């Protein structure tokens, strides 16, 4: 009877896990298709050429916003994959949490203002330092703040506090939002689980943000807890991190979730004028995009649709930098770089190369670098970022020649 009971319990758990995964896949499809609908719809209207200047500007803003939304979804899915496989890596430094939290607040302030939600930070500048990955710690705060803003109605408040409590630093994010039902509270940090995954739910998202928060906090030696008085009573999340006992130099950081400023170095265009770049991608749209984007910086671009075409182009044109996709039919980007590196220096065997690819895992980066690429850049990429990478590689090449 005990064996039968255990077997039935195990079967019930397996069925529940299977159902949660099915619900999650349906949610992923919905969350990716929703912004895609806006992107394709506005793109078709722009192509029709019947929009006035104001509508065209709104269309481009909508396309960019929805593309960023998709990029965030994909990054969360990749983070969960790294967590499950144990491949999530942290870059530990000495971190002052105040600027980390302020950066997360600044990046989400426009979203809060658009929803009519007031942000109330109370940050103690003398709270102390922690040891951790500043970008991942900012991701923790960003996820908690984003979640609070999403579930707080217009006119509500989101309170963010940073304080020192004994030998720990406590980060608290509380809101006056919809709250959490008591029966769901124990599962709020579980992967693939949402309080409402039905087609009539009022709030979007994949339900991965809090699961990522818990894992990241635990990797930093801390703990995260959730409290709520029930539906309509708001929610409070506490992140507790161990305080560093020895003060050392604090390292700055670049926020993962901060919006791109759109500003670029005035010297970038000058440094790229006349640089010859060979773009290799089997997708015509990708080739056209890179040609147009790099052309704005004065780059001379030649395109190739396959590894064979790329090697032929190297023989007759000799680019300064190679930018290649990885996933291509017949011969992929790995085969291309291996064949290129087999050439003598006089025939182009030392041309600096960038792997620009949708394969964005850490193991993909290591494989690309091991194969012979100098840089690995994940799609989607900001044109200014790619231009800076190319300028850096072209500079290395010229320095090497000298």
Helix content: 40-55%
Widest β-sheet, arrangement of strands: 2-4-5-7-6
Distance between the termini: 81 Å
Order of secondary-structure elements:
HHEHEEHEEHEEHEHEHEHEHEH
Shape: globular
* Gyration radius, in Å: 24 Å
> Structural class, from helix and strand content?
alpha/beta
The low-pLDDT segments are 195-204, 247-264, 396-402
Compute the number of helices: 11
Strand residue percentage: 15-25%
Largest sheet: 5 strands, mixed
- Average pLDDT rating: 83
Q: Quaternary state, please?
A: single chain
Give a description of the structure.
By secondary structure, the protein is of the alpha/beta class. Helices cover 49% and strands 17% of the residues. The strands form 3 sheets. Strands 2-4-5-7-6 form a 5-stranded mixed sheet. A 5-stranded parallel sheet has the order 9-8-10-11-12, with helices on both faces. The protein has a two-stranded antiparallel sheet with strand order 1-3. The radius of gyration is 24 Å and the shape is globular. The N and C termini lie far apart (81 Å).
């Amino acid at each position: 009877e005990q064996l039968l009971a255990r077997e039935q319990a195990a079967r019930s758990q397996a069925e529940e896990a299977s159902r949660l995964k099915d619900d999650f896949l349906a949610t992923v499809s919905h969350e990716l298709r929703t912004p895609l609908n806006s992107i394709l719809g506005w793109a078709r209207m722009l192509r029709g050429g019947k929009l006035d200047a104001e509508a065209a500007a709104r269309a481009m803003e909508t396309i960019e916003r929805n593309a960023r939304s998709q990029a965030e979804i994909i990054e969360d899915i990749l983070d969960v994959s790294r967590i499950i496989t144990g491949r999530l890596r942290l870059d530990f430094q000495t971190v002052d949490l105040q600027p980390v939290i302020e950066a997360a607040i600044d990046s989400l302030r426009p979203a809060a203002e658009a929803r009519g939600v007031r942000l109330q930070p109370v940050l103690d500048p003398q709270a102390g330092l922690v040891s951790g990955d500043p970008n991942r710690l900012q991701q923790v705060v960003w996820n908690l703040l984003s979640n609070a803003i999403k579930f707080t109605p217009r006119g509500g408040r989101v309170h963010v506090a940073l304080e020192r409590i004994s030998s720990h630093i406590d980060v608290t994010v509380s809101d006056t939002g919809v709250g959490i039902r008591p029966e769901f509270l124990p599962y709020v940090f579980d992967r693939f689980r949402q309080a409402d995954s039905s087609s009539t739910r009022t709030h979007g998202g994949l339900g991965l943000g809090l699961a990522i928060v818990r894992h990241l906090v635990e990797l930093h030696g801390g703990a995260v807890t959730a409290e709520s008085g029930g539906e309509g009573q708001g929610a409070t999340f506490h992140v507790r991190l161990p305080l560093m006992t020895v003060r050392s130099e604090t390292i700055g950081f670049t926020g993962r979730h901060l919006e791109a400023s759109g500003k670029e170095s005035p010297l970038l265009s000058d440094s790229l004028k006349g640089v010859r770049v060979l773009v290799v991608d089997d997708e015509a749209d990708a080739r056209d995009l890179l040609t147009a984007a790099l052309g704005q910086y004065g780059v001379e671009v030649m395109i190739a649709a396959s590894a064979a075409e790329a090697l032929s182009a190297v023989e007759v044109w000799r680019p300064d930098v190679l930018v290649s996709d990885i996933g291509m039919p017949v011969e992929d980007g790995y085969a291309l770089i291996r064949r290129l590196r087999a050439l003598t220096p006089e025939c182009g065997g030392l041309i600096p190369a960038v792997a620009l690819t949708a394969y964005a895992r850490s193991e993909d980066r290591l494989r690309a670098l091991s194969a012979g690429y100098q840089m690995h850049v994940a799609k989607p990429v900001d044109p200014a970022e790619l231009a800076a990478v190319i300028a850096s590689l072209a500079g290395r090449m010229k320095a090497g020649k000298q």
